[in-house]
Specification:
- The protein is of the alpha/beta class and about 280 residues long.
- The protein has two domains: about 70 residues, no CATH class; about 190 residues, Vaccinia Virus protein VP39 (Rossmann fold), CATH 3.40.50.
- The structure holds S-adenosylmethionine.
- S-adenosylmethionine binds next to α7.
Length: about 280
């Protein structure tokens, strides 16, 4: 016990206390986020906000919800792109859409939706494949501010250009420009894409399962968690998925070594799409 305490730096102790305080005051649980990345973000935050120490940050956050909201934004990495990992979407069209066609109605959960890049990519595929009307998509994130951006579905035109290349490589069936309207250097995604989407805040670390889904995307979220929190999230996803349901992970994530590894089969070796078989 003494050895553990001695090996922790003062900063680490302060970070532990900060995370514990946030959890007890607000219920947001960052205690099991991968520590080195989290430490870096906390340091950047107190430097950018010109706060003298982590303890002073704790004081502000515990007494003022607005500071918590800013801190949550700074902790969440929102890097994303439409049709990122073209092969993922090619495999989704070929290997998952035919299955969804056999269902009268599908519930889909996009967890850790960020500003909606993955979400609109998915909605575009479903629309092009003629099954969008038969799907309800639940888009969730821990970060309320980023969720609002997802709802708005507005992206800078220079980004849209790179999304256009991804879309073509991912097997897009029309022109990407059919799916948005350009105005004032920005692209606004077609409102029809949003027709069957429910947006809600949900914390994968502490909130419960809220439905049973046929497809769950949880891409590039768990890479920021330690192995204990990853196992917790895998359990949550598993209990939220119907038998023969599909899970889509990010390129650097895998079902291997997860608590339910043997209940899934790979749809394709390189696509990180898995079908629940047990
Ligand atoms: C890198 S983005 C991934 C976006 C998208 N899924 C993709 O692959 O392009 C990670 C997202 O996970 C969200 N996130 C982080 N911790 C979370 C948690 N505990 N519960 C729900 N979302 C979380 C962040 O706010 C961020 O929007």
């Amino acid at each position: 016990m003494l050895a553990t305490q001695q090996s922790l730096s003062v900063e680490d102790i302060e970070i532990d206390l900060l995370l514990e305080g946030i959890f007890r005051q607000y219920g947001f649980d960052f205690r099991k986020y991968a520590r080195s990345a989290l430490r870096r973000r906390v340091r950047n935050f107190i430097r950018d906000e010109q706060i003298g120490s982590v303890s002073l940050l704790q004081d502000r956050i515990l007494h003022d919800r607005q500071w918590l909201d800013r801190f949550v934004c700074s902790l969440s990495v929102n890097v994303s792109a439409m049709f990122r990992d073209a092969h993922f979407y090619v495999t989704f069209r070929k290997g998952v859409v035919p299955l969804l066609r056999t269902y009268p109605f599908s519930r889909i959960w996009v967890a850790g939706v960020s500003a909606g890049e993955d979400l609109y990519s998915l909605a575009i595929v479903l629309e092009e494949e003629g099954i969008h009307d038969r799907c309800r998509i639940y888009a969730t994130d821990i970060n309320d501010a980023i969720l609002k951006r997802a709802k708005d579905g507005i992206y800078p035109l220079d980004l849209i250009k790179s999304y256009t290349n991804n879309y073509v490589r991912a097997g897009g069936k029309r022109l990407f420009s059919d799916h948005y309207t350009a105005a004032y250097e920005r692209g606004i995604m077609n409102s029809s894409l949003r027709d069957h989407i429910v947006f809600a805040q949900h914390n994968l670390a502490s909130d419960a399962s809220f439905n049973e889904f046929h497809v769950i995307f949880c891409r590039n979220v768990m890479i920021y968690f330690n192995s204990e929190l990853q196992a917790h999230v895998f359990n949550l996803l598993h209990e939220s998925l119907v038998t023969f349901g599909i899970i889509g992970l990010g390129a650097r994530e895998t079902m291997k070594f997860s608590p339910h590894e043997h209940a899934y089969e790979e749809i394709d070796k390189n696509a990180r799409l898995y079908r629940r078989i047990a």
